[in-house]
Structures are given as structure tokens and as C-alpha cells.
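[agent] plan:
  1. take the single chain provided in the ticket
  2. run structure prediction with default settings
  3. attach C-alpha cells to the ticket
  4. add a short note for the reviewer (M.T.)
[agent] executing step 1
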Amino acid sequence: MQRRLPAKTLILFALMLQTTIWSHSLVADDVIKQSPQGGINWTQGVIFANGFGTAKPDLQPAQRKLLAQRAAIVDAQRNLLEITQGVRITSELTTDQAMKQSRETSARIVGIIKGAQVTSKHYQNEVASVTLSMPIAGRFLKSVWQNEASIAWQINHWPLLLSTVSFEEQLGSIGNHLINGLIPSAHAASERQNSPNDAEFIVRKETDANAYRRLVEWIGADKNHDIVELLNRSIAAYENNSQFSGLLIDATNVPDFELASIPKIRNQSGEILYPNADTSYDDIVKNRGVTYDFDLNDAIANQRVATKPFIIKALATYENLTSDLIISTKDGERIKQSLSTLEAMNKAGVLIVVPI
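[agent] step 2 finished; step 3 output follows
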């Protein structure tokens, strides 16, 4: 006759086993929000949950194992749904809110959870345990963020300072009025002794830079050094910031920042820099809006922003939106000025370093 363990011993074993599962499924340096039933790995972009199950003792051993595993999966699915409902998408939207707003969204999320992957399973002393995992990106994020995305895509069309027409067309239409408009700005810039990053004229792409170069040549004969100096600073700022592989935001001094799948990045006036009208919805859904890390050095090497990220500091959260980060207006202009940073950022190439 098989000796059965007391109920208290089984419960203690289950708790010990649960702790063991967590220790194997988590990475020490990952940013993880943990709960008794599982957690959210914000670095890997994974939601995970643990479940336990037993079966009636009067069944055959094989049947007990099978039914215990099924019970554990059902328990894990229930826990996974509970954890998933708490996932914050943006400052204004949680998964629970999205599910309450739309029955279709709720049904889709329940279906995704039922298809969650079993990443570990154990059966010992007639207690089955499983861990289920599902990615935040992909089907889940697309199901939750549909309405939010349509709003985000209608804002922040950043104006270009130079149009896309040829230099000759610009010059013919503007003529001397361009020079008359530049001179006061150039003198003002000279009086403030601006650095390259404070240049009045922001170069966003190669065609703009070429136009400025030709402007320099064209007005150089007039010895108008103020304008030449100003434009040269703008060109230098563009060239110095043109090869970045992603955007890395240091938010270690913002303790009240709340992790979200798609946090908004704003400047000091509240303008939303990310996500904006040029941000790829498909890339955000595929890769998540951002990823997170605890260590700045580790973050620099992260494949999302490697090999040369554009690094800036976050100042605070925005008003009562604790998943919206504020950066300085100056840094916002620097981002706009760097074509490579814009391109990487708008393909979800954003990483945020958070306080431990």
C-alpha cells in the first residue's frame, strides 16, 4: 500500500515547488512585477502564471497524473487572466478597462490565455504544477491597443522647416526675404551664445542638410558670418547626431513612474514625442512599445537599442499620468534633429532604465 503524505506536508511542498518554479523562470536582472500567482517580466515582455492541481485518490496512477495536470493548467489559466487584467498598456488604459469596454476584446484575450504556452510542468507526490507564459507583444497587444492606437496616429505631425521641393525652387520663391528673416534670428542666437544643440534651425534629414550647405555657399560671398555660423552649427548638430541605433531613456530618478507596455514620452510643454503619427503601429504591436532594464550599462547593450543608443534623461512623470515620462524640451529637439534616432524610435527602438 502506497504511503500518503499528510495534507499539510503536501501544501508545504507545493509552496516550495512554486518558489522553485519562479526561481527558474525569472532572470535576476530583469524588471519583474511579481505576484503570488506569477508575474510580468517587463524586460522580456512576458506574462507568466503558476497553477497547481490534484486528482481523486481512487483513480489509477496514470489517470491521477493526467487529471492533476489538467487541473493545474485550469488553475494557471485563471491566475494568468487575473495577472493579465492588471497589465497597464498606457497611462490611460489597462487590460481590465479594455476588456470591460469591449466584449470582443475580452473574448480575444480569454482565447489567447487558453492558448498560452506551458513553459514548465512537474508532477510529484500526486501534485501537478505548471507555469503558463504568454507574450505581451503580438496578438495580445493588438487586441488591447486598437482604439488607443487610432488616436495616437493622428497627433504630432512635426512640421518640416524646409519643404521637399528643390533648392532652386526654394530659393526662387523666397529670395531676399529668406535673408531678411534669418538675420535677426542669427543675431539673437549669437547674443545667447548657443551651443550646437541650441541652434535655431533644426536639420532633420540629408536633403535639408544639403540645402543648408548650399545656402552657406550662396550667402558666403556676402560675408554674412552670423548666418553662416548659425547654419554651420545646425549642420554640425545634424551630422553629430545622425547615426544612433535607438532611444535610451534614463528614468532612474523618477521613482513614481509606472511601467506600461506603451508609455508616452513628452517634452516639458506636454507635447507627445512618442508614439507619434510616424511611429509604426505594426512594430509596436510586434515588439511592444518599449522594454525595460535596471542597469544603464546593460541597457546600452540591449539588442533593441544597440549599438549606439541616443541617451537622454527623464525629468518626471506628466501630471497625473504616471506612465508618461517628461524629457527636457532641449532633448526633445535633439531627438527631432536626429534622423536615425527618429527612425529607430518610431520602429519601437526605445528602452527605459528604471530605478531598482
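[agent] step 4 note for reviewer: Residues 61-85 form the longest helix (25 residues).
[agent] ticket updated
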